[in-house]
Please model this.
Amino acid sequence: QVQLVESGGGLVQAGGSLRLSCAASGSIFGINTMGWYRQAPGKQRELVATIISGGSTDYADSVKGRFTISRDNAKNTVYLQMNSLKPEDTAVYYCNARVVTGRIYDVWGQGTQVTVSS
Model:
């Protein structure tokens, strides 16, 4: 089974930067798309950014120009570089992997807290 472990969250001042990492282990050869989602207090979980194995990326409008998702296939790790952070970016950030084998299913990490102070 695929397992995802996030790291890199923490407390940062508005305008600062953080770099999140998500390391995948287990049956990693079935992973196609990976991505980052976030859930702020009182809000629904939302898509932040996605990246496929070939490197194509997509971003939510709210983070375009500030966040960058990247993927190191050799290390089975996906990153989220977050710059120019705003208080509204405060949320629990979750790593996601779409597994495509004999069946299609999603795997989620435990989440990492990002708090941006004003």
